[in-house]
């Protein structure tokens, strides 16, 4: 028996006596009520004390003589932190420090840029010029404000709706367009499907399609930062649907046990494609799940840029200083379709979507606040939108005309010396294209020109 299990003579006696009771019960044939009554009598003879406790890993576990199941939920739901009300007015009871004018304007400009980028790139896909797109409409505050609260040294492991984080870090509109058009200038050489961005320069790990794989990976990255004693943390983003994946639970437990500086950021936008949260879990959202794993958690208004900024800034401070994981649940709403492959009006009411657009729009809400401070006006708004649209049109024009990667580049960048089986596949592909060029896309070089 492990030494941590027994800490006092009284506890030892309790365990020995109860072990004897267990042996008596197990070695007797069942005789209905007589055995039950004898067992109860033996329990009474143990001189039971509710002040006794077992010292189990994690602390002392007190005993009780009453059957008491832990409630499946609390009567009161977890509160949601916010700074601005739905109209963009600062809540008087909130004690957050207001951000500077420069940062406030930069946050707004970036949210507008993200919104416009999504709108234009989505239209380009609808025109058949690219193959796929996913917007972050309604979630602009989550993207931009959370990124603003971080250091560029912090490492991001995103899902697929965090391109605003990359935008904030300096990924250009031209780089976004290059990836969507899969041209030769794309850092990924056109091998990833659209929206699967990645940037070594910006500490933004490439998006992976399978849900949740980035969560345990983020814990591993955070562990490396801890070993190297870096003044940085890891942030991994995911949606409410991903919390039903095993990687979510494994990742949280992994992080809590290893005590690593990682922030789990859940965008609870109400829908996992067509599955509503009411069919995803019975718990009080996501924040409550952190407690089960021993992780400090907070619920935040995901449509309030200032609340997101505050919460992320504080979470980062705790994660690095105390070397522990944090779970953030941001309540928001996916105003757009899941992707260009989806029509969300098939499974949710248009009225619901329009209500969120009108009453809880994160951009108009934040604009009301900066205009109320005298930091923004209609002329600035017009100038910003005109400039961003011009940049987008130019980026699309350049990306669309750019040369495509050679098809044989598919075999490069994995092995230093290409193995014979890949050499054979490359020869086979090249020969097939030459024989049947009509079956392959035009505008692609067969092999790289060296």
From TrEMBL:
Location(s), subcellular: Mitochondrion matrix
GO CC list: mitochondrial matrix
Domain Dehydrogenase E1 component residue range list: 109-405
Family: Belongs to the BCKDHA family.
Name of this protein: 3-methyl-2-oxobutanoate dehydrogenase (2-methylpropanoyl-transferring)
The species this protein was found in: Daucus carota subsp. sativus (Carrot)
GO molecular function per UniProt: branched-chain 2-oxo acid dehydrogenase activity; metal ion binding
PANTHER family according to UniProt: 2-OXOISOVALERATE DEHYDROGENASE SUBUNIT ALPHA 2, MITOCHONDRIAL, 2-OXOISOVALERATE DEHYDROGENASE SUBUNIT ALPHA, MITOCHONDRIAL
Primary location class: mitochondrion
